[in-house]
Amino acid sequence: MRGARGGRDERCRAVIVLAIETAGPRGSVALLPSEGLPEQVEFQASGRLGAELAPAIQGLLRRQGLGPEQPPDLVAVDLGPGSYTGLRIGLAAAKGLAFAWGKPLLGVRADEALAEEAPPDAERILCALDASRGEVYAVRYARTAGAVERRGEAGLYDPADLARLLDEPTWVVGDAAERVGGGHRRAPAERAWPTAVRIARIARRRHLAGERQDAIGLAPVYYRPNEAEAQRRQRAMKERT
């Protein structure tokens, strides 16, 4: 048994992951090395996101002795929900790097990453994200046999209505956690959004477990899918004129 466990550890250390997180209020990129501590670079996810992302990735790779000739083994990206523009920029960058390097790409949802950060004794978890317009994007998770699994579909809620739906003690995570009433435990404010390091760790674990995704078909998750599609069409029409 010791040899088998050691084999898994060796494979885990051998997978180097570059992760991109641009769905939240602050963007970040991280490099999870084969050995040692991860390195993460943060930047303001504002109108200059497109200009800041590429230099941040290049600097991160250079400091780790990586690049086009020796790229990371896996590219990971936050799929959202989150900032419409940030999601598009982050996913486009992740796809471009994965295709250029010939490496696999794994997307991780923001709500999944936040739910997995709940403490081990949290059996019922609610991820609550600020969807603006006075609404909260929420989805439930449950911990079963140590694994965190989604329970039902995500939806948009009025915070007051959402509080009434939680009839059992629940661990609440996300940047809208404080807006959910009731005597529920809440994650610290500094952990209101997943970091690129967290995205990298989840992606590496899933990759080693055999998960593969269609990089071409990988799409972001929006708070309001229909509205996001309308924005995409409007942008396409402007580009044609």
Please describe the topology of this protein.
Layout: H1 2-14, E1 17-21, E2 26-32, E3 39-44, H2 49-63, E4 74-80, H3 84-101, E5 105-109, H4 110-116, E6 124-130, E7 136-144, E8 147-157, H5 159-165, E9 171-173, E10 185-186, H6 196-208, H7 225-240
Parallel strand pairs: 1-4, 4-5, 6-9, 9-10
Antiparallel strand pairs: 1-2, 2-3, 6-7, 7-8
Helix pairs in contact: 2-3
Which terms summarize this structure?
5-stranded mixed beta sheet, 26% strand, alpha/beta, 37% helix, 10 strands, Nucleotidyltransferase, domain 5, single chain, 7 helices
Q: What is the CATH class designation of the largest domain?
A: Alpha Beta
* Helix and strand sequence: HEEEHEHEHEEEHEEHH
Total strands = 10
Share of helix, binned: 25-40%
CATH topology assignment of the largest domain: Nucleotidyltransferase, domain 5
Low-pLDDT stretches are 1-10
Structural class: alpha/beta
Instruction: Tell me the count of domains.
Output: 2
**CATH homologous superfamily of the largest domain - what is it?**
ATPase, nucleotide binding domain
**Net shape:** globular
Report the end-to-end length measured between terminal Cα atoms: 65 Å
CATH architecture descriptor text of the largest domain: 2-Layer Sandwich
Gyration radius, to the nearest Å?
Answer: 19 Å
Strand order of the largest sheet: 3-2-1-4-5
